[in-house]
Design goal:
The chain is of the alpha/beta class and 252 residues long. The protein is built from 11 helices and 12 strands.
Length: 252
């Protein structure tokens, strides 16, 4: 069994880390370079850096910030936001990232996943899926452009297609739970985890240590990502890991 991973997330806008609720009402959470160094020292297994307005604003990810953050880290580092071409991937990986995260561009042109996987290997390609429940259709749908645009794609179908194109990992964010701190969407995570053969990172809703345990056991997640509870020091990566080990989970 793969050991479970704890991954802090830096949502970056205009060079600052921000956090909101259900992708809106963003507030400042600090400097990305300082936070990256802090999480490295804390024992985070990986770090995710998402330039959350790059796709919406139609621009490239901030390579200079990526370089600075990468320079402070000894742990794997995933970067996403505004990555639209193979050249964009090359630029981000050269800047120091270990993996790239594709979202909007992959939905628009799924072949981009295959191009990246063929060139760098599937282990470098993370497909991020922003998912929101639709009561009328009783299913989760994929959203793009930082959660601003609904697509007609069913989340489970898209997850399977992304993996068939070469995604080595999926980062699944529940827009419904994002920032609410009421727990991860275990049903969504479980459904995706059972539908694909690659690791699934759960995102959206972490409010306490128990929530991590629940999404690992009930949601079958391979990793869990959180932002605000770490940024605002409500708990720490080290405390979460200690709690999970005491509960008997294999933690990296």
């Amino acid at each position: 069994m793969l050991t479970k991973r704890i991954i802090p997330c830096l949502d970056v806008k205009e060079g600052r880390v921000v956090k909101g609720v259900q992708f809106v009402n963003l507030r400042d959470a600090g400097d990305p370079v300082e936070l990256a160094a802090f999480y490295d020292e804390q024992g985070a297994d990986e770090l995710v850096f998402l330039d959350i307005s790059a796709s919406h604003e139609g621009r490239e990810t901030m390579v200079d910030v990526v370089e600075e953050v990468a320079g402070t880290l000894a742990i794997p580092f995933t970067v996403g936001g505004g990555i639209n071409t193979l050249e964009d991937m090359k630029r981000i990986l050269r800047a120091g990232a270990d993996k790239v995260s594709l979202n909007t561009a992959a939905v628009t042109r799924p072949e981009l996943i295959r191009e990246g996987a063929d060139f760098f290997g599937s282990q470098c390609i993370v497909v991020a899926i922003d998912a929101k429940w639709d009561d009328t259709l009783s299913s989760w749908f994929v959203y793009t452009h930082g959660g601003r645009r609904k697509t007609e794609r069913d989340v489970i179908t898209w997850a399977q297609e992304a993996v068939s194109q070469g995604a080595g990992e999926l980062l699944v964010t529940s827009m419904d739970e994002d920032g609410e701190k009421q727990g991860f969407d275990e049903a969504l995570t479980k459904k995706v985890s059972e539908a694909v053969s690659v690791p699934v990172i759960a995102s959206g809703g972490a409010g306490n240590q128990q929530h991590f345990y629940d999404v690992f056991t009930n949601g079958k997640a391979d990793a869990a990502l959180a932002a605000s509870i770490f940024h605002y020091r409500e708990t720490s990566v080290a405390e979460v890991k200690k709690f999970l080990r005491e509960k008997g989970l294999e933690i990296r």
